[in-house]
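We modelled the chain as a single entity of 244 amino acids. Its sequence is:
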Amino acid sequence: MAEFLEKLFSLAGKTVLVTGASRGIGHTLAEACAAAGGRVYSLARSRSALPFAAGGVNYRSCDITDDEKLSDLCAELSARHGSIDVLVNCVGVSLGADPDGHMNAFEETVAVNLTASYRLMLAVYPHMRAKGGSIINLSSLASRFGMPRNPGYVASKGGLAMLCKGLAVDWGPEGIRVNTILPGYILTDMTQKSFDDQALRAERQARMILDRWGTPADLVGAVIFLASDASSYVTGADIVVDGG
């Protein structure tokens, strides 16, 4: 039984693409997928060298808003390894509302969180069709509940969650599973400012059953489950990881 479970949750032999992997959640999940045996490529816009070599992760600098470069990269990986088996999409921004009522922050947030995420899924789709695969998008609890002063984030994350359900229906017959993880408050560089606001932190933490903010490591279990054969009959699902 132990050997069966180890194989069930293994990513050995799978080519895994992780986006938004230069820091925070994406960085942690890329290393976790490699530790589970995956052949991991991590994408981020940053061109700086990252300490991934020791963790078995191959870093590539790529702007996922560039259709041509993204398509070329996916084709290269597929040609080299036969397919892309897993996509873990961690790309996201949270810009808040424009104080002057303009659309700039809203449009940029939707462009990254929703439009670029769809572009990414379309890029990997042809390279999963041969034998199926798993697409995992990081959305947010904001996809279910309103968040103040951040309309672009709420709209984009809600749209992403529903987009994944639609693609799960469209691509399911080809063996491609599309699922979404909805994290609660996870302490990263992006959330550090609100975490440091003691009143705001206390207000948010009061609603958490486990009485603590999460860390990127708290998302590892859900991602490995969805990336591996352990979730072979799971698609179109929202996996909530929010401490209750």
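As a brief sanity check on the tokenised model: DSSP finds eight helices and seven strands in the chain. The radius of gyration is 18 Å.
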